[in-house]
């Protein structure tokens, strides 16, 4: 069969809360078995050393910690639904998310794809307890149980469209699930498959069954193939792997843990008993897997056995393996079983073994087998070509083959052949490796649903990054692929891992920063580019950025090449060398154009695409190119001619900045043929330009009125009548270049407004030379269009300050000001800072362009850290008298008050009541009633529901809950008789929307709840 790659792993087993801890437990040959937690059942009550009827002969097993913890808010599941869900569903949801992240993918990116979900599951004890209490069966209890829902919930919450099924073949369930997932990939039914298994022991039923069947080990421990083997010990856990066709995984540059070369499944048929193992069927499934993998049995170096530690089971398995390996040349087949460490995890046994084999191949060492010190002599392992691993087995650098068996009690057998991943030299680079990129600095990203989650995950990443000795850019690249997609975002640039760890830790400990980041969820940004004009230039401008960023270098070189035929000298070299000629007009204007074109193109290549453009005077040339109104070559020709022709004009002109409104200045120049208003930059920022003698008179007049003036350092009187002598020659060139209608809205400083279908043609550029720069009008019109971010494109910040001084208009719009270049010391770090700020505001950069190809290599990152604040274990705990005798709900802690400085939920819109008696808002009985009903339907505490929350996205409502909501509203509110559920549906976006609709409908509160239902367990 075509090879299948294991590209992502997550798991949780006894004594091992994550994949790293699982590997550590295996390498230490540690024991994850202990006494049955009191939360499950009273082990002493059900214990009988002699295995009396209705009792188990052991009080021990392999149990995971905190099986009741579930981050329901992350998955937008209401507390009521979470409490009803089988904990196997809850564990699988979180494990799957982390496995997908481990595969180097943001789980949200799988949404809408044909990704398949295949889950092995054997136990359904939660349902046995809850669905048999008929009086308490609810819609949530129904959907919260059932084998199918373990897979279906994953598909639902990740929005996956591929096959979604649960498999029960008893102990072989999860390896059969992997087999089905591989076949689905091979058939082309899906391109990514999530395969796993889960098992949570809620009742002692199987412990009693194993005891009564003579299969249970009194100490609750499996001792596979050991001399002391005396039966099965129960275990539990969850594991998920992400599978892809190997060719696809390699093409996408994904890390490959191991490769599945072949799988096979068969059945005992009518053999020596329904529950008894059959060596003939086992050796047949081994042969089928070897054949499908295209390998000889003698090539397999080690096998992870089913290895339960039962007398008959171990004997049958050894005989089946011996059939293939007894005559193998050289070293015997190494044999082990993870059940010796964690117990028999039943439906999750196959995935526990698969993960062990994959990690062994990945780390190139096979852990020693627990209880292997004394092997069972009756098994005659040596004669069957087998040996137990009493010490870790180091694997060679060459490709290594391994086997994995999982056999079901009902006779469904599965075997898989795995191989070590291809060497790095055999793997192609990322699919986009041809893209040129790099800004000289990585941008590390983390996102989360809220402030506590963001803090938790920032701290986790900081702790993990601190010990890494890899490139910060490679880590950042991986974070960009994986740690994105949630509503609240954080990003920070860093040059190395030490700096990255420090900045992440600082962010995690900064409540003010977290409050700002989570004041409102990131939305779709509307970005405006503002291009600076003449006067912002300086020697060596953007030299640091040119040094650090390959992307910027490429675009500045491109602009230089376009200018060179018209300037006769490299503008790039002049700029980077710090040549003071940059202040000569003939060089200033093409130099500014080159820098602004390169910076604007760099940002667009990075995925920051402007929706609005504004250029101050000569800044409009680069803006016109980005808008598609001019070609690069055309703009280069125009700007070079413009600067040269202006330089040739006679000296004797100047410019005067006046801190006064246009109305006070305009009359002074109205009758001056050699002067004019050059620019209106703000309510009290006017610039006059013209003959020096005229300027002196005007300056004296203004000083006499007490107005502040300042002479500008310029060579000529730009935007004044003194420019007229150059217009004829410039017009000839402009007519040849032409110009079109902008494809992106340009807020013209010639017109003082957006160009509405108007071309930036020869006439425009001719007028542009002498026209007043109407920056204030253009900027105010742009602000009215509602940009979220103003990105200043130029060698130093100029326009951002001018916009802030526009007064109430700018304060009302309150856009974020982003500065990719902050002045003479600017480098790639400034550009990375700008990109980080834009990402935090909702932009989705083209991350491939941020890094050179060699840094776009996936690196392991700590998976998402879920909250364990909320606990759900309202299990009807079984007793010896029967499962319905007692109910022992575990208390669910109410949300704690936020620590000082902790970000809280966004405030409701002005005039919207959150809850009448909360936060000092005016009493609103209807609002109170609506929120109390919503809280009751979802199982929330009343204080957890507020007006801004969305019923579906934030509170986890579904169609069943909406029906109950309508019923409960009818009980609390009058005036709804004429309103149907269909009438409500369009008005259920937020709690406030629903309340407003009920107010409009004339509803009033007439009943008071008899008891507060609150958050339920």
UniProtKB/TrEMBL annotation:
GO terms for molecular function: 3-oxoacyl-[acyl-carrier-protein] synthase activity; fatty acid synthase activity; phosphopantetheine binding. This is Polyketide synthase. The keyword Disulfide bond does not apply. Residues 1-420 form the Ketosynthase family 3 (KS3) domain. One of its GO terms (biological process) is macrolide biosynthetic process. Pfam families: Acyl_transf_1, KAsynt_C_assoc, ketoacyl-synt, Ketoacyl-synt_C, PP-binding. SMART domains: PKS_AT, PKS_KS. Keywords: Acyltransferase, Antibiotic biosynthesis, Phosphopantetheine, Phosphoprotein, Transferase. Transmembrane segments: none annotated. Residues 924-1002 form the Carrier domain. It comes from the Bacteria. Residues 878-903 are annotated as: Disordered. PANTHER family: FATTY ACID SYNTHASE, SI:DKEY-61P9.11. CDD domains: PKS (cd00833). SUPFAM superfamilies: ACP-like, FabD/lysophospholipase-like, Probable ACP-binding domain of malonyl-CoA ACP transacylase, Thiolase-like. Residues 887-903 have a biased composition (Low complexity).
